[in-house]
Amino acid sequence: MDKLKDYIQVTNDLPHDICDKLIERTETRGWEKHHWYSVEDEYEGKNPVASYDKELDVQAASDDDAREILPHLDKALKKYYEKFSDHSIFSRLSAIRFNKYQVGTLMRPHIDHIHDIFDGKTKGIPVVSVIGCLNDDFEGADFMLCGEKIDLKKGDILLFPSNFMYPHEVTEATKGTRYSFVAWAF
């Protein structure tokens, strides 16, 4: 494996009925605006969780949500792990978070240099970023990875390295609402 794309995997492991159920559940609970952690802002004395224009909404997955997702996520992670069986690349998974992109919202370009998944007791380094696509009946809100569109369909699970070589973003949603989840293996 000598190309960046060799480390990107998309599987369709999440059943559509579970995707629908998860979307339904999230809409019965409250959403909040996404906030960024910025080392640069922190060093400059700015609020390290400052929000930017057009931010998406986020919500922590409930225990019931996680129980629905984890068997399918585990299947995708095992496939990824088997590609790199000569290395022990991860052993744990962060909490799952839902992302909601309504018309006019996006996620700006970034890398997954995640700090807030660790609480002082849980320690690690995010190694694999996980994105689960819960629907595909929207326009815009394209997942861009290393400058290229990754075509995600309902039920897809995308895995890629959580490092500076994999900048990514979600373009502005133009029609409908995009629902997804995110987690990090470490």
Set down the secondary structure blueprint:
Elements: E1 9-11, H1 16-26, E2 32-33, H2 39-43, E3 57-60, H3 63-83, E4 97-101, E5 107-110, E6 128-133, E7 139-140, E8 143-145, E9 148-150, E10 157-161, E11 168-170, E12 173-175, E13 178-185
The gyration radius over C-alpha positions equals 16 Å
How are the strands ordered across the major sheet? Answer: 1-10-6-13-4-3-2
CATH arch. level architecture: Sandwich
Oligomer: single chain
Largest sheet: 7 strands, antiparallel
First and last CA, distance: 21 Å
Structural class: alpha+beta
The percent range for strand residues is: 25-35%
Strand segment tally: 13
CATH topology type: Jelly Rolls
The 3D shape can be described as globular
Elements, N to C (H/E):
EHEHEHEEEEEEEEEE
Explain what this protein looks like in three dimensions.
The protein is globular, with a radius of gyration of 16 Å. It has helices spanning 16-26, 39-43, 63-83; strands at 9-11, 32-33, 57-60, 97-101, 107-110, 128-133, 139-140, 143-145, 148-150, 157-161, 168-170, 173-175, 178-185. It is α+β, with helices and mostly antiparallel strands and 186 residues long. It has one domain (4-185): Jelly Rolls (Sandwich). It has three helices and 13 strands; from the N terminus they run βαβαβαββββββββββ. The strands form three sheets. The protein has a seven-stranded antiparallel β-sheet, with helices on one face. It has a four-stranded antiparallel β-sheet with strand order 5-11-8-9, with no helix packed on it. A two-stranded antiparallel ribbon has the order 7-12.
